Amino acid sequence: MKKIFFIGALAVLLLTACGNEGNSDETNTYKVSQGKITNEKLLINLAVRAETIIEKYDGVDNVKVEDAEIEAKKHPNLRNDETKEIYKNVYYIEGEYSYQGKKYDFVWSVSFNNNDIDSGGQVLQYISDMETGEKINVNRSLAD
Q: 47: which strand partners?
């Protein structure tokens, strides 16, 4: 009788654990749900991607973004208010970067082509404290 109870409890536990996976988006490397991102490897990867974006739009080289200096969130799908294009796999990253001994704040929002942050994507927003930097801000709202 104890074996049957144990097997039944184990089956319920496994079904519950597997059922929770449906609430997360799966990528090749990470499971990412909407909301704040806490996975350290994912934050490191986003920090490295942010360095490339910062260097491109602020026109500087050798910036450093530490994963501890950023906050990242996965957003629901968004829609371009002008073209009605739907943006999926939207991430919002904000934080600080270092350049020549000074700290600058930045905000970067991106829609990745696939549910994988290693894929290409479209920058929806980029703003920083760097005076010479290019600013981008696509008018967008939540998609239905």
A: none
Give how far Cα 27 sits from Cα of 21, 40, 84, 112, 134, Å: 12, 15, 26, 12, 31
Prediction pTM value: 0.74
How far does Cα 18 stand from its chain's mean position?
A: 24
* 51 within 8 A of 140, measured Cβ to Cβ: no
Distance CA 112, CA 144 (A): 19
93: tokens are: 């990253």
| SS3 label, residue 78 | strand
82-108 b/e (C-beta count within 10 Å ≥ 16 → b): eeeeebbbbbbbbbbbebeeeebebeb
Cα(133)–Cα(16) distance, integer angstroms: 49
Give pLDDT tens digits along the chain (144 positions): 444 433 444 333 333 334 333 334 444 555 567 888 888 888 999 999 999 999 999 999 999 999 999 999 999 999 999 999 999 999 999 999 999 999 999 999 999 887 777 778 899 999 999 988 899 999 989 887
